[in-house]
Amino acid sequence: MAKYTAKIDEDTRQRILALPRSVKFSAFMRKAMIVFVDELEKDPDLQPENFIITRTARKDVSDRKRT
Fold first, then answer.
1. 32, 53 in Cβ contact below 8 A?
2. Is the dihedral of CA 62, 19, 26, 32 positive or negative?
3. Which of 1, 64, 65, 59 is nearest to 31 (CA)?
4. What counts of helices (H) and strands (E) characterise the chain?
5. What is the pLDDT of residues 35-67, one digit of tens each?
6. DSSP character for 49?
């Protein structure tokens, strides 16, 4: 699998590193990239300013722990 890299500013890098260890940053980024690619496939003329990242209630319960 190829790795994609993008430059981020130092402030953002420090904030990512300061996140609690329990936060799986790569899982969040993987989900965000899937959404971005889906949208860009629909309309390749989109620009970064066309995207707004928001938080919603979890809809996919397939990863829910079973008790």
1. yes
2. positive
3. 59
4. 2, 0
5. 889 999 999 999 989 888 888 887 766 655 655
6. G
Tell me what pLDDT residue 55 has. Answer: 84
- Residue 37 tokens read as 């690619």
Contact 30, 37 (CB under 8 A): no
Q: Are 16 and 25 in contact (CB under 8 A)?
A: yes
Single-letter amino acid, residue 13: R
The string over 8-39, giving b where at least 16 C-beta atoms fall within 10 Å of a residue's C-beta and e elsewhere, is eeeeeeeeeeeeeeeeeeeeeeeeeeeeeeee
CA separation for the pair 11, 22 (Å, rounded): 21
d(CA 30, CA 36): 10
User: Which pair of structure tokens corresponds to residue 2?
Assistant: 């190829």
